[in-house]
Amino acid sequence: MVGPGVHFVSNEAGSGVTLRAGTSLLSEAGPTATFLKRGHPPDQPGLIGMQTGCVVSGFSMEGGEASVIGFSDDGVEISNNIIDCGPGGGIGILVNGRASIHNNLCFGGFAGIALALFDSGVQIFNNIILNGVYSLNSNCPLLVWAFCNLINGEQSCFIGYGNFSADPLFCGVGNYNLRADSPCAPGNHPDGFDCGLIGPLPVGCGTVRVRMMTWGAVKALYKD
Hints:
About 5% of the residues lie in helices and about 35% in strands. By secondary structure, the protein is mainly β. The chain has one domain: Pectate Lyase C-like (3 Solenoid), CATH 2.160.20. The strands form four sheets. A seven-stranded parallel beta sheet has the order 1-4-7-10-13-16-19, with no helix packed on it. The longest helix has 6 residues. It is globular, with a radius of gyration of 19 Å.
């Protein structure tokens, strides 16, 4: 369990850390209060590696030129995270094993790849992926189940339902809570699928009402 705050992650060699098999890395207060960053920027190549049965949930993570999270083992779960590929244009999640990836927000820097797939047997659901899903395997299409995701970018190499492309309508710059009219909010799916919440954060603000007025009425509001 990791408490709120900013935590710098690296090993003695200046690389990212690898979780031992069966380890769950969980935040106490969620991704708006718990931040994982590279301990040796800008040269640190990655942040977190995962072995069989590992879980990473509830963090805001920032990467660089390599993957923020990467793994080649099975039984991995990545959920409820905000993952920034970083200004170096790295990969958010590099998948080379069987995994469940859900309710994350993943976006990248220059030429960043949000989610890269090498293997089949992956379930991707209820994520907001702003830089596309790419297959790095020549045997595309992979047997990847993807459903109820907002994906802006490439959407190849998987099968599923309820995936769409749209503006997620966040509450503001750097505020990734959803607006009440967001297509990612429960009940707002543009195609009517019952997906529930898409992404890691709930509705946090409403919409702004607009009232029609004449220019004369607007000027009258500012008379002394």
